[in-house]
């Protein structure tokens, strides 16, 4: 089940006047990762001040009880529901121009699965479901299904890069295996992918003991990605590490922030620093560094802490982990490390995200002072795409709380 603190994400406040006037009408769009839909919340500036996320906890109180047709809600100054709207004009969901599988080229050789063949078993997190399907031999398989329901440009690029990267990664015992490309049933558009499902949760779980050998495996797979393939994961964290109960090896996953050479490389997110902060968190359960922006923190801060207070079962003394880490960091941070990364001998490459043909379809975007239509192309609202007859894949689904009470989740 999606953690309550991760379920809703607000796009901020929109003020129809000065935000300093407490009576100014205010609209907030909130995305619900559970029901995979956008809800607009209307209130006043008094209730929704700038840069304060009050809309998400307010919506959380009644989100599960709203009809699927509801597009907007109005709340009073106490945050209590006072009205609803089913008018499609209130829906500010962005159109997602999913690309046809043929656009991906290299995915032609990948195994595929239609979305309708996936049965939802659980919702693991934002944009990730636990699903099952029967393979060509009729054997049931449990998989993690990752998808992007947002039409934001940065999300489209992240999805494109991740699926292209995963398809090109050579098999590795410490990287979660890619499984299949997920296609919509109507037009064979790529809407996501599946990976092998590993039970037991991630290394965020303090109940999972940690072994020195797993640390060695993490260091080795990071070296392989960085120095052999020219890939920087950029999001190494306990939440992105699993332990395979069959092989007893650590597995790295979630490559949606990965960089390839200079492309996508972000300040303060190099994998060496990521490993340092990750191992410190795994051993101590001290998570306060995660609240510090990556570009404002340095791994020296962690390495120079005299005592790492252990709050997890380990198979070796903390000093053994720290010594191994310090030796590895010294090797990686020697002169020329970034050059070795940029000049990796087997660098992976893939084409940039192409412009979707859907974005080439013109739509009316207002009128001139003379009353003539203004026609534009590019990104658009989903309601606009529907109005001009474009195909829109729909993600909306019932809240999981209802499914837990016995409603069917079969698509």
UniProtKB/TrEMBL annotation:
Molecular function GO terms recorded: ATP binding; protein serine/threonine kinase activity
EC number from the UniProt entry: 2.7.11.1
Protein kinase domain residues: 118-411
Stored InterPro entries: Kinase-like_dom_sf, Prot_kinase_dom, Tyr_kinase_AS
Catalytically driven reaction(s): L-threonyl-[protein] + ATP = O-phospho-L-threonyl-[protein] + ADP + H(+); L-seryl-[protein] + ATP = O-phospho-L-seryl-[protein] + ADP + H(+)
Pfam families referenced in this protein's UniProt entry, alphabetically: Pkinase (PF00069)
Class in the EC hierarchy, top level: transferase
Subunit (UniProt): Component of the EKC/KEOPS complex composed of at least BUD32, CGI121, GON7, KAE1 and PCC1; the whole complex dimerizes.
Role this protein plays: Component of the EKC/KEOPS complex that is required for the formation of a threonylcarbamoyl group on adenosine at position 37 (t(6)A37) in tRNAs that read codons beginning with adenine. The complex is probably involved in the transfer of the threonylcarbamoyl moiety of threonylcarbamoyl-AMP (TC-AMP) to the N6 group of A37. BUD32 has ATPase activity in the context of the EKC/KEOPS complex and likely plays a supporting role to the catalytic subunit KAE1. The EKC/KEOPS complex also promotes both telomere uncapping and telomere elongation.
UniProt protein name: EKC/KEOPS complex subunit BUD32
UniProt lineage: Eukaryota, Fungi, Dikarya, Ascomycota, Pezizomycotina
């Amino acid at each position: 089940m999606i953690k309550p603190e991760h379920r809703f994400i607000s796009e901020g406040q929109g003020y129809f006047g000065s935000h300093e006037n407490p009576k100014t009408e205010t609209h907030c769009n909130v995305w619900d990762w559970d029901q995979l839909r956008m809800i607009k919340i209307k209130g006043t500036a008094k209730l929704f001040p700038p840069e304060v996320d009050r809309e998400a906890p307010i919506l959380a109180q009644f989100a599960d009880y709203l009809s699927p047709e509801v597009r907007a809600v109005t709340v009073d100054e106490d945050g209590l529901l006072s009205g609803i709207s089913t008018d499609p004009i209130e829906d500010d969901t962005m159109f997602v121009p999913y690309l046809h599988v043929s656009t991906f080229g290299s995915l032609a050789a990948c195994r595929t699965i239609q979305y309708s063949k996936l049965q939802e078993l659980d919702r693991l997190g934002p944009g990730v479901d636990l699903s099952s399907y029967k393979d060509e031999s009729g054997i049931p398989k449990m998989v993690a299904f990752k998808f992007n329901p947002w039409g934001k440009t940065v999300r489209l690029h992240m999805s494109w890069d991740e699926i292209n990267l995963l398809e090109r990664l050579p098999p590795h015992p410490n990287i979660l295996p890619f499984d299949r490309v997920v296609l919509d049933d109507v037009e064979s558009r790529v809407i996501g992918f599946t990976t092998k499902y590993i039970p037991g949760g991630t290394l965020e779980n303090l109940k999972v003991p940690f072994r020195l050998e797993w640390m060695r495996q993490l260091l080795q797979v990071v070296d392989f990605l960085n120095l052999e393939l020219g890939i920087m994961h950029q999001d190494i964290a306990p939440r992105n590490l699993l332990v395979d109960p069959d092989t007893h090896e650590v597995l790295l996953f979630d490559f949606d922030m990965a960089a390839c050479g200079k492309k996508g490389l972000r300040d303060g997110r190099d994998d060496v620093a990521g490993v340092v902060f990750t191992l410190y968190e795994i051993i101590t359960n001290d998570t306060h560094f995660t609240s510090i922006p990556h570009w404002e923190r340095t791994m020296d801060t962690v390495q120079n802490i005299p005592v790492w207070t252990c709050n997890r079962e380990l198979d070796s003394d903390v000093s053994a982990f720290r010594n191994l880490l310090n030796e590895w960091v010294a090797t990686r941070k020697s002169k020329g490390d970034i050059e070795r990364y940029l000049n990796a001998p087997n660098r992976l490459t893939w084409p940039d995200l192409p412009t979707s043909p859907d974005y080439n379809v013109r739509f009316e975007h207002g009128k001139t002072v003379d009353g003539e239509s203004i026609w534009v192309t590019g990104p658009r609202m989903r309601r606009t795409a529907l109005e001009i007859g474009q195909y829109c894949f729909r993600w909306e689904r019932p809240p999981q709380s209802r499914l837990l009470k016995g409603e069917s989740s079969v698509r």
